[in-house]
């Protein structure tokens, strides 16, 4: 795209020996201060970028927390002396059995499809940057944007559990309590969000730069 | 609104003052910053990130919208958002009740986290924005530590989850539909309006203009 038609070639601040603030875009010439003169964001040259370490660390934490989130019950329901527990997946199956297909789809997407594809997306992005893959820079950046945007929506299931538990109180025939998985799932979502936020998108563009002669 | 992409700064302009340039925060592409007309939006040519979108009177509008959101949030916290009727009894639940439902046991942390994501973080963001932008809307000097406060409000933005809460309420409604009769309370609608007002506020907000104004007025 950047080579289309009569457009001038793009120059990055780095090409010019300048450092652009990753927060507000303020350009700094040498000697580069430690923090942006405008917004106080720490300035680092991309060659010394260590953000991938944080990406991997948060991602590992998110993956570990995701395991108990699927094994242990998300919701414990007691109704007329009977108690039942359901994990995330069982919750989706129950919804299908009650023919609430749309809600089942929403819960499945938010609690299973999005978290798992997010893990793979972050792994792919981090690996592609580490291996200095040059192709598909625009598509990879788009993937990064989607991951950043969509990750928060996984919290839906945690909120639903919290709302149900508060709503269906002791006074009624049924009680609903959150299971231990609610905590680990919330942690998993938070850790993966932190992982995505740690990712420096300039790294994607930087790897693409190399492909230009 | 007119959208346009910026042209890269040409190589001959190597003597250009860094203050007249902008490096795209997401892809580092360098541009000479033109005077962007009010009401138009300048995007990065490579990654299409909005670089600047100045508007007339935007600061005042943002402050007023943030004030509106604040009042809506108070309504959203204290009014019931769901009313549940079963066996002739009615129970109304406000967000405060949700938080207090786990006042003991291992789920205190969960309750605090949920309360923070739905109410505390959005409220903090609103207060931070009013604190930073109100003096600027009046043309005054920035408030103390305005830079740090604005950075903080940008940092917590992804953790502000009021819109996700609305979807969650709707799903809960359907999940319990077989168990009891449920209806939406006033707080739910307060939240719906809140989400729209917040989205409107965020489209009015040009971060570059705010940072530049803060920089100019600090001196």
Short description:
The complex is a heterodimer of chains A (213) and B (219). Chain A is mostly helical.
Low-confidence spans of chain B: none
- Supply the number of structural domains of chain B: 2
Alpha-beta classification of chain A = mainly alpha
Specify the helix fraction band of chain B: 40-55%
Major beta-sheet overview of chain A = 3 strands, antiparallel
Q: What fraction, in percent, of the residue positions of chain A are helical? A: 40-55%
**Treating each run of at least 4 consecutive H or I residues as one helix, how many helices of chain A?**
7
Structural class of chain B: alpha+beta
Q: So how many helices of chain B? A: 7
What's the average pLDDT of chain A?
83
Please identify the oligomeric state.
heterodimer
Order of helices and strands of chain A: EEHEEHHHHEHH
Distance between the termini of chain B: 33 Å
Question: Tell me, what is the CATH class of the largest domain in chain A?
Answer: Mainly Alpha
Task: List key phrases describing it.
heterodimer, A: about 210 residues, mainly alpha, 2 domains, 3-stranded antiparallel β-sheet, 5 strands, elongated, B: about 220 residues, alpha+beta, 3-stranded mixed β-sheet, 7 helices
If you had to describe this structure to a student in words, what would you say it looks like?
The complex is a heterodimer of chains A (213) and B (219). Chain A has helices at residues 51-71, 88-97, 101-130, 137-150, 156-167, 180-198, 202-209; strands spanning 19-20, 27-28, 75-79, 82-86, 174-178. Chain A is mainly α. Chain A folds into two domains: 1-48, no CATH class; 50-209, Butyryl-CoA Dehydrogenase, subunit A, domain 3. Chain A has a three-stranded antiparallel β-sheet with strand order 4-3-5. In chain A, a hairpin with a 2-residue loop joins strand 3 (75-79) and strand 4 (82-86). The longest helix of chain A has 30 residues, at 101-130. Chain B has 219 residues and is of the alpha+beta class. Chain B has two domains: 2-52, no CATH class; 58-218. Helix content of chain B is 51%, strand content 16%. In chain B, strand 4 and strand 5 (50-52) form a beta hairpin. The longest helix of chain B has 30 residues, at 108-137. Chain B is elongated. The two termini of chain B are 33 Å apart.
